[in-house]
């Protein structure tokens, strides 16, 4: 078992089988989301950029690297899937700058861990009934290999959201189940609730993502009578059991009369008087910050997510199994987050436009913030000096301005990036349908429908 620190409240375990038959074979789903060319990434001196030879040399090295790159067609003994909830391309770019600046560099030319992966593509995120999807439908596509309806988990598009009876006979298995069928240990590490739509799609089947526990409001006697099981209970009844589980959401496993083990002032939410398990670890999400236009929260979570990717790679390298491990990084969807005010190189993302001629709005003559949201809770009805004086950019809970007022910022519908490294990572290039990612991972590892494909032993 491998152990390493991620952050104070979260620990990740990668369980490696001790058997000879399946030595170092495992699947880990991390839901927290290599260009090794010899350039000076993260520089603080821009003078050399004024010389064309700098750019020409960078391009030459890039081409040389790509010409030397060879396809890895080994059977993937291990698969690690990183899902950054809400980690759209704007978040990746802003996160790159944020991470570089946290290390004392300009940031724009910094290279993150995921950007060092050998192959890159784009995934279309729409679901069967919505142009802009939610985490339930997209996670089902990513982990089960089929697109489905908005708000549903682990079922196909024939079921209707919130309708238990319509979901019978529509269950689809996930890549986690495909790996278990061949005897491989599997794990899920989430910085959200373990019953949240994204991790739940790895093990549960539910016509409504809100059916996380038996609470008599979202899920109760009616649904049980119709043959449905709440998500938390499905997790406990999972057979074979999932080897490693780390995530939040204890309240869905405790009855209302049982105090939480970490905070006795809080009780569980189950109204069926059943206590399912004892303990889980708690964390956070990129997506959570974006929903409340808390960009600092979201981008700092991105940095932690990227650091985790680097730590996992180093562990695999130390164990000598990196070349046998398929690593895939992607997002389920994007968010209504953007940045783009005219600013000088190295500008603080959390600040205002810094170029003198472009640092104020031509409409209201007020300073322009670099980060904005298309919609969300912080809609400035009046932009004046009083409003500006109320802004504290050092406040970690500060909410960036939104163009359209809403209780929460929405998801965005653009394609998301897919980074891959390891066996068969060359399958993850170009623009792809999101559901094909599960199939490509299974193909690489000889799991599920691909266990007897040519080349599998």
TrEMBL record:
A Gene Ontology biological process in which this protein takes part is: biomineral tissue development
User: Which InterPro entries does this one have?
Assistant: Alkaline_phosphatase, Alkaline_phosphatase_core_sf
What EC number is given for this enzyme? Answer: 3.1.3.1
Q: Which SMART domains match?
A: alkPPc
> Where is Mg(2+) annotated to bind?
85, 196, 198
Per its UniProt entry, which superkingdom is the organism in?
A: Eukaryota
> How is the cofactor bound here?
Binds 2 Zn(2+) ions. Binds 1 Mg(2+) ion.
**Compartments, record wording:** Extracellular vesicle membrane
Q: How does it sit in the membrane?
A: Lipid-anchor; GPI-anchor
Any idea which GO molecular function terms this record carries? alkaline phosphatase activity; metal ion binding
- Write down the chemical reaction(s) this protein catalyses: pyridoxal 5'-phosphate + H2O = pyridoxal + phosphate; AMP + H2O = adenosine + phosphate; ADP + H2O = AMP + phosphate + H(+); phosphoethanolamine + H2O = ethanolamine + phosphate
| Record key words, sorted | Biomineralization, Magnesium, Metal-binding, Zinc
Secretion signal: which residues?
none
Active site, per annotation:
135 (phosphoserine intermediate)
List residues binding Zn(2+).
Answer: 85, 287, 291, 332-333, 411
Q: Required co-factor?
A: Zn(2+); Mg(2+)
The record's note on quaternary structure and interaction partners says:
Homodimer.
Q: What is this protein called?
A: Alkaline phosphatase, tissue-nonspecific isozyme
Recorded source organism is Rotaria sordida
């Amino acid at each position: 078992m491998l152990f390493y620190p991620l952050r104070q409240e979260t620990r990740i375990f990668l369980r490696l089988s001790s058997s000879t038959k399946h030595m170092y074979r495992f699947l880990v789903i991390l839901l927290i989301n290599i260009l090794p060319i010899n350039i000076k990434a993260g520089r603080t001196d821009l003078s050399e950029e004024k010389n064309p030879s700098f750019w020409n040399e960078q391009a030459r090295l890039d081409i040389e690297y790509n010409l030397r790159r060879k396809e890895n067609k080994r059977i993937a003994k291990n698969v690690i899937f990183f899902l950054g909830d809400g980690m759209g391309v704007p978040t990746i770019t802003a996160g790159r700058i944020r991470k570089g600046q946290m290390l004392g560099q300009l940031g724009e030319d910094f290279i993150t861990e995921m950007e060092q992966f050998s192959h890159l593509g784009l995934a279309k995120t729409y679901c069967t009934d919505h142009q802009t999807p939610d985490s339930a439908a997209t996670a089902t596509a990513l982990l089960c290999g089929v697109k489905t309806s908005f708000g549903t988990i682990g079922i196909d598009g024939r079921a209707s959201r919130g309708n238990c009876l319509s979901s019978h006979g529509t269950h689809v298995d996930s890549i986690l189940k495909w790996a278990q069928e061949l005897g491989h240990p599997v794990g899920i590490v989430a910085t959200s609730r373990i019953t949240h739509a994204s991790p739940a799609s790895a093990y549960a089947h539910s016509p409504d993502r809100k059916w996380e526990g038996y609470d008599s409001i979202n899920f109760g006697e009616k649904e049980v009578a119709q043959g449905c099981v709440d998500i938390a209970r499905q997790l406990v009844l999972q057979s074979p059991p999932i080897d490693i589980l780390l995530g939040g959401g204890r309240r869905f496993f405790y009855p209302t009369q049982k105090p939480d083990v970490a905070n006795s002032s809080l009780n569980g939410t189950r109204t069926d008087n059943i206590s399912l398990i004892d303990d889980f670890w708690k964390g956070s999400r990129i997506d959570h910050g974006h929903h409340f236009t808390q960009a600092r929260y979201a981008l700092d979570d991105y940095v932690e997510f990227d650091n985790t990717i680097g730590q996992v790679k180093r562990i695999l390298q130390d164990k000598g199994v990196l070349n046998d491990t398929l690593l895939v990084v992607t997002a389920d969807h994007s968010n209504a987050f953007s940045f783009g005010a005219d600013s000088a190189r190295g500008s603080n993302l959390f600040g205002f436009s810094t170029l003198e001629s472009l640092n104020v709005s031509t409409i209201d003559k007020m300073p322009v913030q670099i980060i904005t949201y298309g919609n969300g809770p912080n809609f400035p009805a009046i932009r004046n000096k009083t409003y500006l004086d109320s802004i504290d950019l050092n406040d970690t809970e500060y909410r960036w301005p939104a163009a359209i007022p809403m209780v929460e910022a929405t998801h965005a519908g653009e394609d998301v990036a897919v980074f891959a490294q390891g066996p068969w990572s060359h399958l993850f290039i170009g623009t792809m349908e999101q559901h094909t990612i599960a199939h490509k991972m299974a193909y690489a590892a000889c799991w599920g429908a691909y266990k007897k494909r040519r080349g599998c032993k």
